[in-house]
Amino acid sequence: MTRVLVADDQALVRAGLSALLDAEPDLEVVATAADGLEALTLARELAPDVACLDIRMPGMDGIEVTRALCGPGADPVIPVLVLTTFDLDDYVFGALEAGASGFLLKDADPTAIAEAVRQVAAGHGTLDSTLTRRIVAELVGRRRLQPVTAGRASDLLTPREHDILLLLAQGMSNEEIAAALVVEVSTVKSHLARMLPKLGVRSRLQAVVWAYQNGIATVGGA
């Protein structure tokens, strides 16, 4: 069972999202919070598998909470999925730069939101597919999120891992990558598990950003 914390300053949104997730047989909302400080306190107390955070909350915004839960020095690290009504603003970029594992708009399909929680809990990360290139382009332009290592992929990864990184940068899922490379999905997952530590990142989303920042993938490129 995947344990989830939901934080949003709007009661209706908080209740709706909680009901949506609780309706899934493998997801359980263990707590809800109406502001950032409450979210941080509950997260540290309950150690959920995923924290679903709104960005704009009173007292302590989602960026500060994200940094506290999964940024440098966080222990334990609690993966964060950002849910917001704003598709492109400084708050969203700030949350990704602070270490968020995923980002979706609140008007996403309910099935997509539930699946995003599962992906983040599994360490895969997720990003709204319609916004991937725009968000990555902005992050790359700012260049504030720097990987642990400054090496290029050719110096760090095997040829197969390099291929998978390029396909990740195109927004492909594990299943799509497996089909493109004619391998099993389990093989893709094994390569990803070995690749992420080499790049000094925690999720596939951060790996994508790393690929663009280091010139392995290019915005608008194949």
Automatic annotation (TrEMBL):
Q: Give the sites modified to 4-aspartylphosphate.
A: D54
Pfam families associated with the record: GerE, Response_reg
Classification via InterPro entries: CheY-like_superfamily, NreC/VraR/RcsB-like_REC, Sig_transdc_resp-reg_C-effctor, Sig_transdc_resp-reg_receiver, Tscrpt_reg_LuxR_C, WalR-like
Its Gene Ontology molecular function terms?
Answer: DNA binding
Keyword Membrane present in the record's keywords: the answer is no
Top-level taxon of origin: Bacteria
SUPFAM superfamilies (alphabetical): C-terminal effector domain of the bipartite response regulators, CheY-like
Domain HTH luxR-type spans what residues? 150-215
What are the residue boundaries of the Response regulatory domain, all occurrences included? 3-121
GO terms (BP aspect)? phosphorelay signal transduction system; regulation of DNA-templated transcription
Write the record's keywords in alphabetical order, separated by commas.
DNA-binding, Phosphoprotein, Transcription, Transcription regulation
Question: Any keyword Transcription?
Answer: yes
Which protein, by its recorded name, is this?
A: DNA-binding response regulator, NarL/FixJ family, contains REC and HTH domains
Q: Give the lineage.
A: Bacteria, Bacillati, Actinomycetota, Actinomycetes, Propionibacteriales
